[in-house]
Amino acid sequence: MGESNTMKKALGVLLAATIFIAGCGAGNDKANNAHTNDNDGAAVTSQNGDAGGAVDGLQIEEKDGDIVLRLPAGMFEGQDLDQVIEQAKAEGVKDAVKNDDGSLTYTMSKKHHKEMLTEMGQGIADYTKELVAEGTFASVKAVDFAKDFSEFTLTVDQEAYQGSMDAFAAMGLGIQGMMYKMMQGLPEAEQKVTVHLKDENSGDVFDSIVYPDAMQGS
């Protein structure tokens, strides 16, 4: 029997996120932590200068009433950038520019940025339902999450969880929450996501994992 859709999606999320976070990490250390809220509620960093400058990670700013989003080169490894740009424009991006370091700078309306975040959020919500419904991670019995995806609570059979590979479920949620916050343009200090593990029988939280801290070497 082949892998379930949930397992394939989880592995895909982890692979994509590994590339994404590796590309974003250095830039987030250098980014200006000041941010403002636009009228649609998406947090946007306030940065001066060219969004396609020397910073290696993801950058996002408001400029001339639009959202300027710089995506690191690691997100497009092995892809034809001309095709990526063509597809982005077909999906509503106003402008897309290749930078010398292989990153891309997108210019989009606030409305399009809000729609993109809404789509990402719906994807995360759908994934939490699939985790339970498909039973790929057998120890997981329920998933709850904060509206802003800053916290997730996995209700699990603790004994089964601790003897399995189901930690991938927690990691997948943590990484997706981080990616959502990155795309909002929140400063690094506000990109942390906590995944709580709660025992189904006792109702006690037996572990809380903070991302990206848990992904860093000890």
Gist of the model:
With 218 residues, the chain is an alpha+beta fold. The chain contains 5 helices and 10 strands, in the order αββββαββαββααββ. The longest helix is centred in the first third of the chain and has 26 residues, at 5-30.
Q: What does this entry look like structurally?
A:
By secondary structure, the chain is of the alpha+beta class. It has 2 domains: 5-109, no CATH class; 115-215, Alpha-Beta Plaits, CATH 3.30.70. It is built from 5 helices and 10 strands; from the N terminus they run αββββαββαββααββ. It has helices at residues 5-30, 81-90, 110-133, 158-162, 167-184, and strands at 35-37, 43-45, 59-63, 66-71, 95-98, 104-109, 140-145, 151-156, 193-199, 205-211. Strands 3-4-6-5 form a 4-stranded antiparallel beta sheet. A 4-stranded mixed beta sheet has the order 7-8-9-10. A two-stranded antiparallel ribbon has the order 1-2. A hairpin with a 2-residue loop joins strand 3 and strand 4. Helix 1 crosses helix 5 (167-184) and helix 3 packs antiparallel against helix 5 (167-184). The longest helix is centred in the N-terminal third of the chain and has 26 residues, at 5-30. The termini are far apart.
